[in-house]
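Chains adopt folds. We examine one example:
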Amino acid sequence: MSAVFMPQDVYGVIGWPLAQSLSPLIHNTGFQTLGLPGVYLLREVAPENLSRFMDAVRVLPMRGLSVTIPHKVAVMPLLDGVTREAEAVGAVNTVFWKDGALWGDNTDVAGFMAPLKPLNLPTETPILLLGAGGAARAVAAGLTLAGFRHIRIATPSNASHRPLAERFGLEPVDWEARHDAPAGLVINTTPLGMRGKHEGERPCDFSRLPPADGCALAYDIVYNPLRTAFVADAEAHGRRCITGVEMFFGQGNAQFLRWTGRELPAASRAALDAALR
């Protein structure tokens, strides 16, 4: 009986509908490896049931939640407070308890910034951000909170990026002009390159991008496949690359730290890498 894992605390991810998720893998591996009595479950919650579900979270109580589409914005008024990261993004992807109150955070910000912090990039680094969805909002928040100011943003629609540019003080550029200026860091938040109908596509042609002084990085938040066309092209042109698995694991690690005060163990990363292979 000493070998039986008996969870006591309940965590989970809510969304509608819930696609296949790797979050249960990394979190449940974390709980069991560290001997913490938690279990992480998938919870499909229809939009009309969100308020009642959050009432149940308080009563049970559930110890923590991951939040995904379409609840990231709708959950905010149902909480007692939000972090500055969640406020900056305008969305919550993590719910946690703090001093008896239910709070919201956006760990996509920490997840995105995690692999950049050790690099100590100068805040004057010219950056090109491609895409304007929810992930792009977290990227923009993370970069601006860290003091980066020279950020251009572009989308294929030539329209959807403009509200994001205004909110965060970015420079909007037309998609056709995205290669016109140097970029020490190029970030892809579009679905181009993702496994499926867009696999093989890339949002940037690095042969057309003028070189930037002192920095040559590419960061793709897509993690399936691990090696996208964007990453392959960047590497072929001498850029150091950060893959989407770093952001995914980083945001999950930030969630786990919020909930438990512990970081995810190496076993969680090993399980994730094995699953993606």
Summary: The mean pLDDT is 95.
